[in-house]
Amino acid sequence: MKAKILIINGPNLNMLKFRDNNIYGSIDLKQINKKIKKNFKNIKFIFFQSNSEEKIINKIQKSKKIIGIVINPAAYTHTSVAIRDALEIKNVIKVEVHLSDINNREEFRKINYIKDVVDKSIFGKKILGYFEAIQYIVEKKLKK
Ligand code: DQA
């Protein structure tokens, strides 16, 4: 059976087409997910995007038999103790991904509630950040 990884994208990442290409890259979320599937044929992915904090938390809580979570919480990175707590409870390998480098933008984006409860944080690598996150989960899982 294929290993399963949950990929969560938060608010406004469904609108990448209309966001600043210089910051986020020129590829939209559907294309990102397509490329992820193409690059990791041995993994089963659950792709989930939501603009709702509640739905993201429910997804984290209810997902079963996954080896890891890749999450781009988007703006909730900077505000959500609730998503942080949900991730903390979940005992799987967790990686936080941001398309942009949140540490080199506005001051408010440096506030990050997620970083302490994930195994790895990846910033500013655009789509490559997702690939790196998946690779990390797979390698870490093999070592266990
Ligand atoms: C983001 C960075 C966040 O600050 C922002 O609110 C986003 C996307 C990123 O992928 O670079 O929506 O998480």
Q: Your description of this structure?
A:
With 144 residues, the protein is an alpha/beta fold. Helix content is 35%, strand content 20%. The model has no long low-confidence stretch (mean pLDDT 96). 1,3,4-trihydroxy-5-OXO-cyclohexanecarboxylic acid binds at residues 12, 72, 74-75, 77, 98-100, 102, 109.
Largest sheet: 5 strands, parallel
Number of strands: 5
Give the rounded overall mean pLDDT: 96
Radius of gyration: 14 Å
Percent helix, as a range, is 25-40%
Strand order of the largest sheet: 2-1-3-4-5
**Shape verdict:** globular
What molecules are bound to this protein?
1,3,4-trihydroxy-5-OXO-cyclohexanecarboxylic acid
Please work out how many helical segments DSSP would assign.
5
Distance between the termini: 18 Å
The assigned structural class equals: alpha/beta
Parts with pLDDT < 50 across at least 5 consecutive residues: none
Short structural description:
This protein is an alpha/beta fold. The chain has helices spanning 21-24, 29-39, 53-62, 81-89, 127-143; strands at 3-9, 43-49, 68-72, 93-98, 120-123.
Labels describing this entry:
binds 1,3,4-trihydroxy-5-OXO-cyclohexanecarboxylic acid; alpha/beta; 144 residues; 5-stranded parallel sheet; 35% helix; globular; 5 helices
